[in-house]
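DM from R.C. (forwarded with permission)

"hey, sorry to bug you on a friday — could you get me a structure for this? deadline for the figure draft is monday and I only need the backbone to look sensible"
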Amino acid sequence: MQGAASIALMRQKLRGNSAKISKACKLWQVFRAVITGALDELGVVLGDAATFVKETIDTHIQCLFTQVLQLDPRTLRLEAL
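My reply, with the result:
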């Protein structure tokens, strides 16, 4: 009985984490649209720098989500031990 309870608790935690990550991804898409729109308007002033800024932000967000999902190499190495 105790083993079943711990499995159910773990499943509940995973489901909660998955929901939070899903919401964060959806919210990021909204923020990205706002940021992209603002940078597109500033494209005349910033030129190629606007594209560079968008690409840099995308890269950093990708790294963040990789760490949140614990898919970064450091975490994967620790889990392998």
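R.C.: lifesaver. The chain has a mean pLDDT of 79.
me: no worries. The two ends are 29 Å apart (CA to CA).
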